[in-house]
Amino acid sequence: MQKVIESFGVSKKFGTTQALKDISFEVNESEIFGFIGPDGAGKTTLFRIITTLLLPDEGDIKVLGLNATTGYKELRSNIGYMPGRFSLYQDLSVEENLNFYATVFGTTVQENYNLISDIYSHIEPFKKRLAGKLSGGMKQKLALSCALIHKPRLLVLDEPTTGVDAVSRSEFWSMLAKLKEYNITIIVSTPYMDEAMKCDRVALIQDGRLLSIDAPQKIREGFSKKLFMVRAPDNYKLIKALRKYPNTNTAYTFGDSIHVTFIDNAPGDMFPAFLESEGIYGTTIEESGAGIEDRFLELMETEKTPPLNPASGSGSGIGEANGGRGI
Amino acid sequence: MTRQVIISVRNLVKKFGDFVANDNLNFEVYAGEIFGFLGANGAGKTTALRILSGLSSPTSGEVMVAGYDAKKEPEKIKKNIGYMCQKFSLYEDLTVKENIMLYGGIYGMSLPLIRKRTAELMEKLNFSDYENKLISDLPLGLRQKLAFSVAILHEPKTVFLDEPTGGVDPVTRRQFWEMIYEAASRGITVFVTTHYMDEAEYCDRVSIMNEGKIVALDSPANLKKQYNAESIEEVFIKIARPDNPPSP
CA–CA separation, A145 vs A80, rounded Å? Predict the structure, then answer.
């Protein structure tokens, strides 16, 4: 199988900021490959290097078998790129934007219409409207249509779902899943951890470094400790108490429960009595499988880079358990 | 919790031409409550938020915030609330200290009080190394924590947070929520919008808007019960797309 992207030791600095450090990964043909990480992790910089818009300081990157630095002309006609910021022409209509992109890439809307029909049909009733007057969801669909209209072999989507509500996000991922039928390889970035499960493989990225690359299920299985879900009527009180408990390794809020790991991998006999001594009653505890976010938090802990994170030790960290970090 | 009403909304309607952005909203928010304000994009959240924070006037209905009428006294509302949003919160080309001075000054705080609060804040956030750094040099997570602290520097009765944690890393996101809990425990009402459905679970009550109307309003536990759902995300999807459940 052909590798669509091969990256070896790619690094990039802006001034003194190390945006990317020693990034190596491969993307296979027809897979949906996700980069999951918070703002400032380096996702956009990496995508700009992949799309030949930026040059790496170090390392080699091959995209569709071509060197991204020297083969950029040929590459650009085979890549569809949807940047994080809406960048279509606001003063052109929906239809005009689509025609423009098709023409720039030497094709026509008709020729590849089948590829975008599912997506474009939602906005076609508004095809005379200026792009600048569209709602957020419609802009997103137009941008995706424009990125696809030249039938690229690689589709690069930079945070397509940021700021989008949970329902529309879910619909967007369904659209991407359908594109697999056309053998288009997709790389996509997102700050939403739950979206990792929609990808074939994901790379977790933080502070310019890759923390882990694998199938999402495998990443979850990489969680090193037993995970417990603890619930109490007042979770704020509960997490404060959990931090005092000597056997607590980590404690993080997750929706209506708190995900806890213990140094001994089990809560211990003293646990119920301890909680009651802290005035917490009606607690439930059950063992649970770890999610992507659990694993991400664990990897952040182990690979913590101290320089710009004075939060550690501030005592205000909801994720900071006592002990466990060898303080 | 005392049941003092901080935000009271009765029959709120906001129209833009023929378009009804807010269609007869009715709710109350209590002192010290964390109130989650959810809804799909375009449901009318931002419009309502702008009215509640004195930036826009209702077409009809009665809106009281922190004891002031949104139609007649929007300037007084602005003085008595805090506001923070994801897109803009602090001036990037000013330092941490300069931003605090600026906001303190805007809210009419005395210089000694600003100095005192600044010192407390630097200590609490463990921020002393950053005091003279430009905001643009701070990582996003720290910026958002500082922005929240600055939004409540003048100890307002209520603070409005518009997607405060968008794109923030998972550890900082949780630290941010702990700060919200702290503020609420001091009696500050927190009115927050978010697209992270797990965060909705951290609220005392949440409302869910759809097409200009509030279609659900209760505690997360009650909403899950009412909609027979495992999570608020499921409730949200059932409400926003009742006849078109998206594929998993």
Answer: 10
- Verify whether the Cβ–Cβ distance A317 to B178 is below 8 Å: yes
Two domains, one topology: A3-213 and A227-302 = no
* Chain B: closest CA distance from residue A104 (Å): 32
**Cβ-based contacts of B124 with chain A (< 8 Å):** 314, 316
Domains belonging to chain B, first-starting first, are: 5-45+58-87+158-240 (3.40.50.300)
Question: Where along chain A do its domains lie?
Answer: 3-213, 227-302
Residue contact B198–A137, C-beta within 8 A: no
| CB atoms B124 and A252 under 8 Å | no
DSSP string, A201-225: EEEEEETTEEEEEE-HHHHHHT--S
Residues of chain A contacting B, Cβ within 8 Å: 37-41, 135-137, 162-171, 174, 177, 191-193, 206, 235-236, 252-256, 293, 296-297, 300, 308-311, 313-314, 316-319
ipTM comes to 0.82
From the CB of residue A232, how many other CB atoms can be counted at a distance below 10 Å? 21
B166 has pLDDT over 90: no
CB contact under 8 A, A166 and B171: no
Q: Is the pLDDT of residue B1 over 90?
A: no
Round the CA-based radius of gyration of chain A to a whole number and report it: 23
Instruction: Give pLDDT tens digits for B212-231.
Output: 999 999 999 999 999 999 99
Question: CATH class for domain A227-302?
Answer: alpha beta
The one-letter amino acid code at B148 reads F
> Is the model's pLDDT at B141 over the cut of 90?
no
Q: CATH assignment of A3-213?
A: 3.40.50.300
pTM (2 d.p.):
0.85
Query: What chain A residue is nearest to B41 in terms of C-alpha separation?
Result: A165
Cα–Cα separations (whole angstroms), residue A192 to A21, A293, B14, B141, B197: 22, 9, 32, 15, 11
Residue A311 reports pLDDT greater than 80: no
Flag whether pLDDT at A316 surpasses 80.
no
Question: Token pair of A36, please?
Answer: 């999951």
Question: Contact, A111 vs A149, CB < 8 A?
Answer: no
Query: A168-178, pLDDT tens digit by residue?
Result: 888 889 999 98
> Which residue in B41, B130, B169 is closest to A135 by CB distance?
B41
Predicted confidence (pLDDT) per residue in A142-160, tens digit: 999 999 999 999 999 999 9
What span, in angstroms and rounded, lies between the C-alpha atoms of A158 and A151?
Answer: 18
